[in-house]
Amino acid sequence: MNEIKTNKEWEDLYECLYIFTDKLLKNRMWYKKLDDSSFIKGKQVHDYVSEGIERYMFNPEKYKPELGSIQDFIKFHIIRNLVRTDVVSSENTETLDIYYNSSEDESDSNYIESLFPYLENYFGDKIDYETVTNHINSEIEGNTILEEIFLGITSDLKRGDIIEQFNMSEAEYDNGMRRLKTVLKNTATKFGLKRQVI
Amino acid sequence: MNSNSKQNKSDFFKLIVADLEFSHCNRQESDRYLADEGLNRDSIINEGMKRVKQMRLKMQSLKTQEEMNSTEYIKNKAIVWVEDLLKNVNFSFPEFAISEKLILHNRNIESFTEEDIKVTLVKYFYLKFTENEDKNVNE
Question: What domain of life does the UniProt record list for this protein's source (chain B) (predicted)?
């Protein structure tokens, strides 16, 4: 989708972004949560989502369709906004040591890949990704659907492409993703990964 | 970090992002999340659409303001241009009117006062500059 036209499209987009942001905030990925409904500077989930949408609406020329969907563009800006403004806020006493390199934001990586430096900050640099990935591979070995979803995701395929490419049903994909989610969760526990988003 | 490690790291992050993606844009998963968190979809959408509407109005207002500023700018530019032109001793309004095919509304060119000439020229250059501006925007 290169342009959001109908109210229904706006509603679907808003809901996706809201849940995405709610999850990020509640899991305290990059900031100190103050109470159940408001965060740094008294912001609410709606405020972060609105700021992301505003970024797209008032600067449509900044959005490059070849780098990803509008949704990815806005998500990237929600996370960037969280890191750039809230993490360094004096209200935030838990994650002041975060590092970000603004020059990485200007690269021509797609919007999803542009999130990686922020994820890296979250997970830290002491993780042995090879061991972690090998563990995930061993956990899904023998389950064809999971292996295909894993291959599809790591080859940058989207849900629809994976379903089509590997000739699986939507239900098989959704069930597979739920199973993969459990594998990721168990992996996080096993290796003591800091992340809590799963 | 060797290329294999980079690949493993990239694969891991792609899985994390795919998981995030799956969890909030899949209808079933969204419903489950909203229910688990005690969130009301209608209330989220109502507030969200209210904000989107406000942003659209704000954007429209900014656009109108920009257009007004642009109109005023072009008008001033045309006035300055014409004033300079009229100062040029070699400038002849009748010749200019013929060469540029100015529409004079069947008025005899001899009957034009200095003010009429200025107004006619400002209108002419205003339209010309506006056309150029539009052309630049569309290119």
Answer: Bacteria
